[in-house]
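[job 4471] stage=fold_predict status=RUNNING
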Amino acid sequence: MPSKTLKTTAAAAVLALGLLASQPAYADDDTSGKQAFTFGVIGDIPYGDAEIAKFPARIQDINADESLKFVTHVGDIKNGSSVCSDEYFATIRTQFDTFEHPLVFTPGDNEWVDCHRTNNGAYNPLERLDKLREVFFNEPGKSLGATMPVKTQENLGLPENVRFEQNRVAFSVLNVQGSNNSLQPWTGLGETTATPEQVAEVEHRTDAVLAQIRETFADAGRRNSRAVVLMAQADMFDPSLLTAATANPEIMSGFREIVAAIVEETNTFDAPVYLINGDSHVFAENQPLAAGSPWLEIYGQVAADDLQRITVDGSANATNYVRFTVAGNKADGGDVLSWEKVPFSS
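[job 4471] inference complete, writing structure tokens
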């Protein structure tokens, strides 16, 4: 399906926080960089025993799509009511290693933020985040599956935050979480408000995310990139939360700075911007910050009409992957990116 054509504005020099200055440069395109390519996105999979059993076959379906340049899993490798054990993480890592394409993974809230729940094992979520980084990000700067070099925030303690460029399209994968970006209380541990260590982690991670967003757009402007693609687990515009968020915008407070940065950068970037997320489990394609959107009042923002958001199916709906096609170098504007759902074989 075609993507929405986005308006152009004068490209502006954007302010980077300077936290990533010591990182290596983007991975350069290979010799096929002038050609069109595709990439796949999945999220919120596998959920529950039946889907866990099917997951190896799902991976093989994706492997069979030889056109894919890389694959991204936008988080939630388990459901929200199962144990966040070391053994489970190891099992999923073993399955991730069978991807024959480069795999970029960003953690979801089910595998660390919500692990305080009794039925998840009553873990300290920050300990689980450390474990995820140990298991899935033990080689910072490299993708899982087949190796693809990426620029990482390892120096900030966030090896999961990565950037790369392919055929003049800038990709930025960010650790942004459901559960109000991890500000909901750890009730399984007896907490009724966010703890100081919890707040400190959210502040540090949010600062890193803001830095990466700004660096992504700054580099895209310098490189004359044809589009920016942001990916994250959290659905910051979850339609199931709209009524509650309208009544009480504070339930979305953990996303406010991130949304503000996306609005600012989108409105000053002279090319399309796409946000790909999981979390809410139902495929959607829309402009969540277009003029008239109720999310503008919730976040206190001006419109960003040209932000295109795509939510991938998840949980019981995860019967497909989304294949995105990036057109060849001669294409620009709304012709750069298109997408379609590809059903799994079983």
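[job 4471] summary: The domain at 38-336 is CATH 3.60.21 (Purple Acid Phosphatase; chain A, domain 2).
[job 4471] exit 0
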